[in-house]
Amino acid sequence: MSQAYIGLDVHKRTISIAVAFLGNDEPVSYGKCSSDINRFLKILRRLMKKYSFEKKDIKLCYEAGPCGFVLARHLLRLGFDTVVIAPSLIPRQSGDKFKTDKRDARKLARHFRSGNLTTVHIPDESDEVIRDLCRARTDAVDDCRRSRQRLLSFLLRNGHHYTGKSNWTEAHMRYLRELVLQDPSQKVILEEYLQTIDRNMQRVSDLEENMRTLQVDWTRGKFAEALQGFRGFQLIASMIITSELGDLTRFDHPRKLMAYLGLVPTEDSSGDRRRQGAITKCGNSHARWIFVEVAECYRYDPKISRALSYRQEGLSKAVKELSWRAQKRLNHRYVRLAMRRLHKNKIKVAIARELAAFIWELGQILRKESSVPDSQRYAA
Predict the structure, then answer these.
(1) The predicted structure's pLDDT at residue 117
(2) Which pTM was predicted?
(3) Where does the chain show beta strands of DSSP type E?
(4) Could you give the CA distance from residue 189 to residue 191 in angstroms, rounded to a whole number?
(5) Is residue 323 located within the same domain as residue 246?
(6) pLDDT at residue 149 above 50?
(7) I need a surface site. Which of 98, 168, 255, 345 has the fewest CB within 10 A?
């Protein structure tokens, strides 16, 4: 049993340390040190020497934040029992009007000792690399969209409007490059916008190629490939979901995955009254966004298209059956909700919530298949 619980208030340049011993005594502050890992470890060893602690005698925690999980992974590799805490679920008193680093560290240590804190999943380094790559691709797409919108707004202010069928086709790009403006400075602005768009499009292409390369040796690459056997999940969506969710086996029920994605409704019920509101929007917003976008694909009738059949090549029979069952169930659900004249966004969120359950089941299937010989796994 741990003899001390250490709370760390981690910031970009400093770490405040507090220690809560077994019992009901108030936590004590041990001071503040640099956020450099080597310097922090030096202070931690000094603390252990002062109180005659061993690694098994202490447990450490700090809040999830912009500093990431580097410190937690380093401490875990060294054998320290370390957890990362969800900051939004830390108990807070309405009458507490003082907030300092020292107080925050003592509060963490106190609640950690009492067992009132909720831990978050610490992703693997490979998962975090893929996740950063996927988010960089999303940023590049967003920059490309913004630069295109700025160009169209610039042309509209100057009385130019493309009358073709659609924007950003080859014909539209030829129109933009051959466009004659009154002032030479405006032509320079147009060229700058066009070059910015080309650079952003090249960024997106390079990042997507890097994603295809890393998927081959990724430890969760098989799950991403199996996820592409579902309607609406191609390379980008499957890798984003896989990197954001990580190990699905940590969710022992699909409802917990739905809650992690923030897709469950809020509730304010008391006595005989039951009132549910909007979704919580807690947890991983990036994964929730992809789920809601993919849910739009299930408005169409169930069908194994040519592209989907190509993506399903090499997948096991159980995965294909799950994909087809998801199509039928979610399309039926989509149609029923549309007949009730619900708002389109509410329908997409409801479909995304049920889609999360099918993705959770896919994780269970792949876990079982990992212990089954290949001759049985791909039997027709």
Answers:
(1) 93
(2) 0.86
(3) 4-10, 14-21, 28-34, 58-63, 81-85, 265-267, 276-279
(4) 5
(5) yes
(6) yes
(7) 98
